[in-house]
Structure formats: structure tokens, C-alpha cells
Design brief:
The protein is built from 14 helices and eleven strands. The protein is an alpha/beta fold.
């Protein structure tokens, strides 16, 4: 078990297997295959290894011509590892014995290698970046540089990434993404704002969590205390499962005071309203006793789409919230783009 401390930006607890999204946004889910497809996966793996070897040889040759043979020796480690019979056998065994795709075998085995190197003397630990580079090269050749998104998932996961773009966060599957853990970011990042708006427990500022977690490994996101717990032991797992139940009970206990007037002791009435990111959140605000929408951030129209939204789409998004509020006040911010919210 390992505990990483970060910044809690969306309270709550989530326990689930991890999906690690690399810097190139590879999302490698644990997808099982039938026995009759194993040979096909082995062929794909062999092709990816061969293609990667050719790329590295060409890169070494080009580097030697342009910079010199000494500089080109950096690729000797890459070529040596990718040709290593023990590594290749571990990749093949992962496919044959655990019945997973070649992509998941590569991600799992090489992440395991990276963790081993991190525990070695510094001159070997420094090779971890080279292992990640080999992993990405193999995955690029396996996937054709295509990657799966967090939009349509068929199982519960916790998303780990060095960083998530606002568009990734805005379009993620809210039903199956139970928690978010990010290496970078702070409390004011758009990812933090969206995670809080969606009610997804999230921790940012973890620095190197993505290099510490093997895809599919069980993790706990504690968005209240800003912790990521990797491979928790039975006692910790039970503790957090009980905590999750208590949090749900606490939230429901607030229903008893939901409809009471917000009035100070000296008789001053306070209007409580909620800020929202998506139209569907308006009903959540009202169900919790909110008296309207204090700020409706509408950037999701841009961040969750590959094209500019039409006037009609703007109209329908605004109308959905206004209709839901049924005469209650709604403050709309048309958009706030730029900085951390790229389109």
C-alpha cells in the first residue's frame, strides 16, 4: 500500500480500479478477450515490437548522422529492452494467461518494470523515462495513435492522468468515472471546478501518481483529505468503504433541513443559490433547497464538442435551465474561454 498526498478539490471517497491516461492520452482499459482471439493479439504484439524496433534503429541512425555516435547510444537501452526475451515472454504470458489485449499487456508489464526501476540505485532509476517512452511507442504502433476516451465506459473506474483537458473532463462518462487523480493542477483549475460540479471525488497536485499506479490496480481517491491510496490493504479498504457509507448517510440527513428558511438570528434573509456547469445540475440545486442559479457556466457547449455550437444549441441549453428553475433567478455566463479552457 502506498499513500500519495495532493490537493483535495472535490470531496468524497471513491474506490475502484485505475485507468491511467498517459501524456499522449492513451486510455488502456482492462479488456478481456476470448481464447480464440489470443493468437491474433500475439500477432499484433509481434508486429508492434518489430515496427518499434525499426523506428528506434532509424532514429539511432539519424541521431548518429546529425549529432554523433555518442548521443545515438541513448537508444541502445531502448533497443536492448524491446528485444529482451524475458520482457517479450512476459508480454505474451499476460495475453495468454490473463486473456487481455496486447495494449493492456504492454501497459501493465512495462508499468511494473518502471516500478521496479524506481526502487533501484539512482543511475538505474533514471531509466524510468526510457521505459515510459518504450511503452508509448509500442502503444502507438498497436493503436495507430488512436486512443479511447473516457466518454463511453462499461465499468466503474478511477481516472489517473498527468493532467486532463477541460474537454476530457466535461465529456467523461459521469456514471462510471467514480474518481479523478491528477499529477498537476490546483484548486482553481477548470478540471477541479468541473469535478466538483459533477460531484466526482478528485485530488490534484499529486506530482507523479501516474508513474506509481499500474493500470487496473485498485486505488482509493479521498477528495476530502486530498489523498490517493494505491493498492490499499484490507483494513484501509474496509475503513474507506465505511466512510463512503457515512458520507451518503450524512448527505441524506441534510434533507431534513432542506426546506427551512435561510434566515440569520437578527432576521436577515439569505438567498442560497448554486453554481452549475451543466444543464442537468439545475435540478440537483433545486432538490437540495437552492433558490435559483447564482452562476450558470456554459463553456461545456464548447469544451464538450469538436465544433462551434449553433445558436439553437445555445438556446436549448439556456432554456433547459430556465424551465427547470420555473421563475427562479438564473445568472448565465455565456462563456469564459482561454487560459486553462482551450477549444
Amino acid at each position: 500500500m502506498k499513500i500519495k498526498e495532493g490537493i483535495g478539490v472535490s470531496s468524497g471517497v471513491a474506490v475502484s480500479p485505475a485507468v491511467v491516461i498517459g501524456a499522449e492520452e492513451f486510455d488502456i482499459p482492462q479488456r478481456h478477450i476470448s481464447l480464440d482471439l489470443a493468437d491474433e493479439e500475439l500477432v499484433r504484439l509481434d508486429q508492434a515490437i518489430n515496427d518499434s524496433q525499426q523506428e528506434l534503429q532509424e532514429l539511432k541512425k539519424h541521431t548518429a548522422e546529425q549529432i554523433g555516435t555518442e548521443a545515438a547510444k541513448i537508444f541502445d537501452f531502448h533497443l536492448g529492452l524491446i528485444r529482451d526475451k524475458e520482457l517479450v515472454q512476459k508480454l505474451r504470458t499476460a495475453i495468454l494467461e490473463t486473456h487481455v489485449t496486447a495494449e493492456f499487456a504492454v501497459a501493465t508489464v512495462l508499468r511494473s518494470y518502471a516500478k521496479e526501476f524506481l526502487s533501484m540505485p539512482q543511475y538505474l532509476a533514471d531509466r524510468v523515462k526510457d521505459i515510459y517512452d518504450i511503452e508509448k511507442r509500442l502503444l502507438r504502433n498497436l493503436t495507430g495513435q488512436m486512443h479511447q476516451s473516457l466518454t463511453h465506459l462499461d465499468r466503474d473506474i478511477i481516472a489517473l492522468a498527468h493532467d486532463l483537458t477541460p474537454s476530457q473532463t466535461a465529456s467523461m462518462d459521469r456514471q462510471h468515472v467514480l474518481g479523478i487523480a491528477i499529477d498537476a493542477g490546483g484548486k482553481t483549475s477548470h478540471t477541479a471546478i468541473v469535478a466538483k460540479a459533477l460531484g466526482i471525488p478528485a485530488v490534484v497536485g499529486l506530482n507523479d501518481a501516474t508513474s506509481q499506479v499500474i493500470p487496473g490496480e485498485r486505488v482509493i481517491v479521498d477528495g476530502t483529505d486530498g489523498l490517493l491510496i494505491i493498492n490499499p490493504d484490507a483494513e484501509t479498504l474496509e475503513k474507506y468503504r465505511k466512510l463512503a457509507v457515512k458520507q451518503v448517510e450524512f448527505i441524506h440527513s441534510l434533507d431534513e433541513i432542506r426546506d427551512l428558511s435561510a434566515v440569520t438570528k437578527d432576521g436577515h434573509e439569505v438567498r442560497l443559490m448554486g453554481n452549475i456547469e451543466f444543464p442537468t445540475e439545475a435540478n440537483t440545486v433545486l432538490s437540495k433547497g437552492g433558490e435559483g442559479i447564482g452562476l450558470y457556466r456554459t463553456e461545456f457547449l464548447y469544451l464538450g464538442s469538436k465544433r462551434e455550437p449553433t445558436e439553437e444549441e445555445h438556446f436549448q441549453a439556456y432554456r433547459e435551465v430556465i424551465d427547470a428553475c420555473d421563475g427562479r433567478p438564473v445568472v448565465i455566463r455565456t462563456f469564459d474561454l482561454g487560459a486553462d479552457k482551450r477549444t
